[in-house]
Structures are given as C-alpha cells and as structure tokens.
Amino acid sequence: MQLEFKELYGQSVNGYIRAVKMKKAKELLEESIMNLSQITHAIGIASPSYFRRLFKEFYQITPSEYRKRRDQKLKGKQHQYECH
C-alpha cells in the first residue's frame, strides 16, 4: 500500500501528511491570530520546536518570520488605502 501511494502521489504517506500539515499551518499563520503554540497543536504536532524546524524546511522561512512578513504586507496595504 505504501508503494502504491508513493507511485500515485510521488511521496510517502508521512511526507504527504507533513505537507498537508504545513499547508494548513501556513493558512493559519496568514488568516488567524492564533499563536505558534496554538497552531502547532491545531495541526497535530506535539513540539513547537519541531514545527518551527519542519516549517522552515518546507518554506525556507520560520513561522515567526512568515507572519512578520504578512503583517508588514498588511500594514503596507492599509497605508495605501489611507493615502488615497
């Protein structure tokens, strides 16, 4: 079954599950005000340090840096609307 899954999806079951969890974490970082511990728990990872490491492996940026960039983009958009 593992081999069939890998042939069908191009990755292991565990790799697929990790990818789904990282996608959900990215969505939560973008759309929620949940802190990193809450996001870690929400995606089913027990360790915040493991979550940070895994997220950085997937996106080449830490979750905190990712959220900081999101916040900067939002401030920039807000500033644009205030200037018009």
UniProtKB/TrEMBL annotation:
It comes from Zunongwangia profunda (strain DSM 18752 / CCTCC AB 206139 / SM-A87). Keywords: DNA-binding, Transcription, Transcription regulation. The keyword Transcription regulation applies. The keyword 4Fe-4S does not apply. PANTHER family: ARAC-FAMILY TRANSCRIPTIONAL REGULATOR, HTH-TYPE TRANSCRIPTIONAL REGULATOR EXSA. GO terms for molecular function: DNA-binding transcription factor activity; sequence-specific DNA binding. Residues 1-69 form the HTH araC/xylS-type domain. InterPro entries: Homeodomain-like_sf (IPR009057), HTH_AraC (IPR018060), HTH_AraC-typ_CS (IPR018062), Tscrpt_reg_AraC-type_HTH (IPR020449). This is Transcriptional regulator.
